[in-house]
Amino acid sequence: MWDPKHNRPAPGIVGKIKKAGVGMIRYPGGTSSNLFNWRAAVGPQESRSRQVEGKQGDTVDSRFGPDEYMAFIREVGATPQIMAPFANSTPDEIADWVAYMNAPQGTTWGDLRARNGHPEPYGVRHWEIGNELFGTYQRYWMSADDDKAMRQYAFGGTQRQKRQRVGTPTDHRPSAAVSNGQPHQSFTVWYPPVVPKSQTIRVDEDTWREVADLASAGADDLVYTFAPESGGIHFGDGRHGKIPQKGAKITADHPRRDRARAAQ
Question: pTM for the complete prediction?
Fold first, then answer.
């Protein structure tokens, strides 16, 4: 949909969309949207971070961001519809996205949009929350039980994750949960925030212990530090805290804190 060489909507695709008469185009769309981080997809291309795809957990780029999407929308003459991610966002984060798309200059997000080359508000009126979250592979932090998952979608709640692989903010593939044997390794749980002091972190079958500071840990201590808000896990360097052995799988048990209620 985008021609990176000329930094414009791809003319061939634009022509086909116009010919087909498509009236509304959703963004990001599909499983890619469920874990989408919109802030990582605005601003200069070289400064954008990557995304984690919502089905296989692959790491994907952020080249086609909200501003590129709106340039495409205007080329084809369609109505925009944005799908706000449900699985990893708070109401405040989505409100910020609405403001980035629609607020005038003189506001925090309107001014950022202007600095990114788009001073006029986009006026996006159609917003959707989540993509096909009834699907068993799109439950994310919610319960596998249909009735309970429906209540969690509508009203929020806390759901304990069990033996869940860890990863990074942009990679949820199985390989992202495996130690490389290097010092100072960092991982994150998939769906933060976490209820403080509630997590169990395992390296293979061994349960390791949370500490406030690795500096006071011994070389063989099975310890880590943990940041509940981001879900970040940090291991030692072999002098202050043992290094997870190469090839070991890192998993986590934890109740995910209800982000919706925390934001209210």
Answer: 0.87
